[in-house]
């Protein structure tokens, strides 16, 4: 009987012990699961904040590089303009970088200028300047890590962006990667200096090197070239600053159908390619051929020049009065680097009379290898570079009759950037940042 009772009591104790162990394990597992949940929150918070910091750094670096690209610095192989950017307008690029970064949140809080730990500029070669932006947040709150006394964590990221101009790439590396901007205007310029005139090329036709970097900030009409930007028919010999109309077709300059300005109603396909954005990238370099318009041109105003002026006026928001269009801000010294002033017809109301980074008056024009033939004598030409020019640069009344009259229409322009590929450029073109021939891209890993 005692033995039976003893066995019964022993078994009961064992059952009680098992119950206690299960309870302890449950409590312990609850703590472990809770700790793991808290730890996972910290880990997710850190990784999310790190990604947000990287996005902010990327955006800020690209914005600052775009300042460099639009400044004209990349078209000066001597580095003089780049030095001016670094000493005179680094503040602008830095300000833009900070403003863009401040539009981003890291860890649920918007960044401030105190979170931008570095904005570093470099340029080797001068045609390819870079900007590095570093972002750091030191007060990211923690959850689980507080048990070790760590109430805040530090997260950071950096990004390097480049304003790439192929003109100096061959001299530096022996190779040239071409570029392929979009929104290129169907105006094929011969490789003849439009300011100094015949006998002076814009680019070395093989390497793409800029022959005369002093062309930046030069305009035509000029003392040597009394005509502004105007057309030549395919049977006429090339002349400085005179373009051949590109073929408006699916392969080269497809007429845009979207995001067209209201003033383009009733325009011809050619005029739509001028007033709107041709979505087809136009590449330069080896094999970058493009067709000229050798057929009959059905004009809307009586001439291609008249059509061009009418479409250009629509593009740059010219409404018949001085100050309508954007202009180059001549109060900025030195100049270049360029800044642009919003005109009173600028579609962005907040940009009127303010310095702006981009403008509809900034357009890109392809330059073809005129030394290798081309009009007259053939239907195709090889694109060896681009000029980025500012239309109607002083924002005065266009020196044109209204309505446009045949043979008297031309547009004054100022050269902002030059990007040469030459026939030696090969490989996959860099698409860059849209219409500018100076590509802006991230180069950091």
Describe the structure.
The protein starts with a helix and ends with a strand. The chain has helices at 2-70, 80-88, 90-101, 169-173, 269-275, 304-315, and strands at 105-106, 109-110, 116-123, 129-141, 152-164, 187-190, 219-220, 230-232, 242-245, 289-291, 327-328, 340-341, 355-356, 362-368, 380-391, 413-420, 439-442. The longest helix is centred in the first third of the chain and has 69 residues, at 2-70. Helices cover 26% and strands 20% of the residues. Residues 400-407 have low confidence and may be disordered. It is of the alpha+beta class. The protein has two domains: 2-164, no CATH class; 166-438, no CATH class. Helix 1 (2-70) runs antiparallel to helix 3 and helix 5 (269-275) packs parallel to helix 6. A hairpin with a 5-residue loop joins strand 3 (116-123) and strand 4 (129-141). Strands 6, 7, 8, 9, 10, 14, 15 and 16 form an eight-stranded mixed β-sheet that branches. It has a four-stranded antiparallel β-sheet with strand order 3-4-5-17, with helices on one face. The chain contains six helices and 17 strands.
Give the H and E element order. Answer: HHHEEEEEHEEEEHEHEEEEEEE
Unreliably modeled segments = 400-407
Shape: elongated
In percent, how much strand structure appears in the residues? 15-25%
- Please report the distance between the alpha carbons of the first and last residues: 82 Å
**What's the count of strands?**
17
Profile the largest sheet.
8 strands, mixed
Q: By helix and strand content, what is the structural category?
A: alpha+beta
Q: Count structural domains.
A: 2
Instruction: Give helix % range.
Output: 25-40%
Give the count of helical stretches: 6
| Cα gyration radius (Å) | 31 Å
Mean pLDDT: 83
């Amino acid at each position: 009987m005692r033995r039976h009772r003893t066995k019964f009591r022993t078994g009961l104790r064992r059952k009680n012990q098992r119950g206690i162990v299960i309870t302890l394990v449950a409590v312990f597992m609850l703590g472990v699961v809770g700790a793991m949940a808290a730890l996972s929150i910290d880990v997710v918070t850190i990784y999310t904040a790190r990604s947000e910091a990287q996005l902010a750094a990327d955006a800020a670096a690209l914005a600052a590089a775009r300042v460099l690209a639009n400044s004209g610095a990349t078209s000066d192989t001597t580095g003089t303009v780049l030095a001016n950017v670094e000493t005179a307008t680094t503040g602008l690029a830095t300000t833009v970088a900070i403003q863009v970064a401040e539009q981003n949140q890291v860890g649920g809080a918007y960044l401030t200028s105190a979170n931008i730990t570095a904005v570093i500029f470099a340029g080797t070669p001068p045609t390819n300047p870079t900007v590095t932006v570093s972002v750091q947040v030191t007060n990211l709150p923690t959850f689980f890590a507080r048990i070790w006394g760590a109430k805040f964590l530090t997260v950071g990221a950096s990004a390097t962006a480049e304003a790439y101009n192929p003109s100096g790439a061959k001299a530096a590396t022996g190779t040239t990667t071409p570029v392929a901007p979009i929104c290129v205007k169907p105006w094929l310029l011969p490789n003849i200096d439009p300011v100094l005139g015949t006998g002076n090329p814009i680019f070395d036709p093989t390497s793409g090197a800029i022959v005369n970097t002093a062309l930046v900030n030069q305009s035509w009409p000029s003392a040597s070239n009394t005509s502004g930007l105007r057309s030549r028919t395919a049977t006429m010999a090339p002349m400085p600053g005179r373009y051949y109309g590109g073929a408006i077709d699916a392969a080269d300059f497809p007429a845009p159908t979207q995001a067209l300005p209201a003033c383009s109603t009733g325009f011809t396909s050619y005029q739509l390619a001028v007033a709107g954005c041709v979505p087809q990238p136009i590449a330069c370099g080896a094999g970058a051929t493009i067709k000229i318009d050798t057929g009959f041109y059905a004009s809307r105003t009586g001439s291609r020049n008249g059509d061009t002026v009418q479409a250009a006026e629509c593009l740059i928001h010219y409404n018949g009065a001085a100050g309508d269009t954007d202009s180059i801000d001549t109060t900025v010294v030195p100049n270049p680097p360029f800044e642009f002033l919003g005109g009173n017809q600028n579609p962005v109301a907040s940009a009127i009379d303010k310095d702006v980074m981009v403008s509809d008056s900034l357009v890109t024009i392809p330059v073809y290898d005129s030394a290798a033939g081309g009009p007259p004598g053939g239907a195709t030409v090889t694109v060896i570079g681009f000029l980025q020019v500012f239309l109607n640069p002083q924002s005065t009344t266009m020196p044109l009759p209204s309505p446009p009259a045949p043979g008297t229409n031309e547009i004054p322009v100022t050269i902002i950037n030059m990007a040469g590929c030459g026939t030696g450029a090969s490989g996959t073109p860099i698409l860059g940042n849209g219409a500018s021939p100076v590509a802006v891209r991230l180069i950091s890993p």
